[in-house]
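Supplementary Methods, section 5.1.

A reviewer requested that the exact input to the structure prediction be made available. We therefore reproduce it here, unchanged from the version used in the analyses.
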Amino acid sequence: MKFNNNFQLIGKNINIGKNVSIGDRTVVYDNVRIGDNSIIANDSVIGEPVNDYYHNKEYINPETIIGENSLIRSHSIIYAGTTIGRELQTGHRVTIRENSRIGRNCSIGTMCDLQDQVVIGDYCRLHSSVHVGQKTVIKNFVFIYPSVIFTNDPTPPSDVWLGVTVGEYTQIGSGAILMPGITIGKNCLIGAGSVPAKDFDDYSVVMGNPGRRIGDIREVKSRKFDGPYYPWMYHFDRGMPWKGIGYEEWLKKNKADGE
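The structure derived from this sequence is encoded cell-by-cell as follows.
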C-alpha cells in the first residue's frame, strides 16, 4: 500500500480524477483539479493560498490545475492559480508559486524553486536546485542543469521584474546565472558557470563571466562520433516525443496533424 490515508485535509470544490492517489499529511486547498492517474505524495500542499488569504476575509482561492498522469513527490508545494499540463514529474521539496503555467511532460527536480508568473513550455527538464525568478519564460524542450539561477531585478531591491526568456531546445549548464531581462535564442548552449548579461541569437555557444558568444553550436563536435552533435534533437530521444521515429519524422507528423 503506497499511502495510508492518514491526516489528509481536502478543501471545497475539489475535482479529483480517476485513480488518483493522495499521500498522508497532504493538504489540498479549495478549487483544485487533479487529473486522472496522478499521484500526490506525502506531506505535499496543492493550491497553497496566495498572500491575500491571510488578510482578506472575502478571499476565494484561484483554481489550481494538475494534469493527468502527474507525479508530485513528497514535501512539494504548488500555489493557487497555477496550471500544469499532463505528465509532470517533480522531485522532492519543489515549490511552484502562484499563477505559473507549465506545459506537458515536464520534470522539475528536487529543491527547485519556481517563483510566481513563470511560464514553462512542453518537455522541459529542470534538474535539482534551480531557481526561476518571476516572469521567466522558458519555451519548449529546454534543459536546465543543477543550480542554475534566473534573476529578474536589474536594480535590487526594487519592484521592477524583468524576466529572462529562453528559446526552444536551448541547454543551460550547471551553475549558470542569467541576468534580468535577457533573451536567449533557440538551440543555444550556455556553459556551466556562465553569466549571460545580454541577449544572444539562435545557435550561440555562450561561456564566461560576463557571458560572451564563443561560437556556433552547430560546430560543436561529439566525442562519440565524427561530425557536429548539435542540434541535439537528432542524437537524443530519451523521453522525447520523437523517440523511435526520429526528430525529422516527428516534425513531419506534427505538421501533418496541424500542431
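The mean pLDDT is 95. These observations are discussed further in the main text.
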